[in-house]
Write a structure and sequence with these properties.
The protein is of the alpha+beta class. It is 55% helix and 14% strand.
Length: 453
Amino acid sequence: MSQPASTFTPPRSSLACAMGRRIAALFALLCATLAAGIAWAADEYTLGPQDKVRIAVVEWFPGTGDLRSPITGEFAVTPTGTVSLPLIGDVKAAGITPSQLANAISDRLQGKLGLEGRPDTSVEVVQFRPFYVAGTVERPGEFLYRPGMTVLQAISLAGGLQRHPAANLLQLERDAALAEDETAALASRIDELQAREARLTAEFNEAKVIEFPADLRGRRTNPSVALLLRLEEVQFEINRRLFNSGVEAQKMQLTMLGQELQSIDQRMLSLSKEQEAVDQHLGMMRRMEARGTATAGRTLDLMRSISEIAGKQRELDVQSLRIQQERARLNEAIARASDQRRNEISVNLQDVKTKLVEFRQRLDSGRKLISLAESVKRSWGAAAQPVYTLIRETKGNVESTVDVSEDTPLKPGDVLKVEQGGGTLQDKTPVSGGDAEPVRPPARGSQARGRAT
């Protein structure tokens, strides 16, 4: 930390200058090293389902000096390999780097919103998709990935190799039973969210009926599914009636005000005709007065009548203006109520979609754990030197199985299978060649980031 100039004056000796140049060189080298590490991580890491990224979009308006952020937040990569973003919808994320995703978001925003300049977008991986450890370890299951993790570190997280096979087999069976119960509960919760999503979509589109997913319609003979759909239909009808009743009341007020306007128009027409008749009579009386056949009093009476008619017309004009203002206020209230309802539905719909993504990922993870537990039970053997097998999906969505060593780096989404039967551990080569991608350790202490400018 530098000291204030008032309390510290740098020496001007040649030794101090040399030290200053050395510190500056070391600082420049450190900045270059950090920048290279971050850039390497962004270029090497490819995104996949269950990754969570932090996205920030910044748009600068030089004319007004405004700095706006149309998209900011954390988003999960869905099982279909996309991120669902406001304004631009789903953007493909699986199989590309954070930098490529940032560029895609900037391009989509510029094209979607018709922006003159390309907005700046940054993408940072805040949580990598998990990896799995199965087989003869103390705690098989799903674990959070950290950059630079090796097979040996993964086994340590899983509690190490099993020491009491019989007891652990019993625990594994219990874990599998719990996982089956949890997956059943998650499946029921997903059905509920799917039905709610269909109802909210129908309300947003102002549809007359709910279009439920084909999967739910096909299982309507199931009493629980039938009850779930019926509850959503009842809620849909209640919400529709409540909203329509409020709008209809305001529309009825508009109708009554319109009738008042028509009545005022008729009265104005009647007064206009009356004024025209009085004007004609006044003209005749003035001609008679000029000939001496009429008195001035009669003329004054007619002029007073004309003044009264004009006063009534002004009062009707004021009433007509007030009614028109009230009609405009009611029309604005109806439009505002409709916009507010659509906005609330949109927020609820987005919340349901987010929960669906989360629960589907948890259901998929639970099913994987059950499958892995069954595989371990079938392949259970006598304790021996451990054999490590790595199952990894390649770019072509093809699973590759390769024997690895304790020093082999892992990647997010890997499934590490540990067996203590089947021979001794030979010298194993890291995952490379063939259909599998080569395994390279990412820079420790750094996260995968990308930026589009």
